[in-house]
Design a protein that fits this description.
Elements: E1 4-5, E2 9-10, E3 17-18, E4 21-22, H1 26-43, H2 49-72
Helix pairs in contact: 1-2
């Protein structure tokens, strides 16, 4: 779940569990997934060549996490 103030700000994602089970909110996960892509688009040109591969790996991991949540969400 990401709390947002439209066109202004947002929190970092908060992963919520109820009765020990994760809550999957598809719309929030999709928003976060799109934010990862946008962040990569803006920041990737600024990485040093020797840092780019590690950064790509981190962003790919984040994409995989959100893709998984999107698939699990109702």
């Amino acid at each position: 779940v990401a709390v947002r103030i439209y066109q202004s700000a947002h929190t970092n994602p908060i992963f919520v569990k109820v009765d020990g089970k994760p809550i999957y909110e598809k719309k929030s996960a999709q928003w976060c997934r799109e934010a990862v892509d946008q962040c990569w688009k803006m920041k990737s040109p600024r990485f040093k060549v020797n840092e780019l591969q590690a950064a790509q790996k981190g962003y790919d991991y984040a994409r995989d996490v959100y893709d998984s949540i999107i698939k699990k969400a109702k």
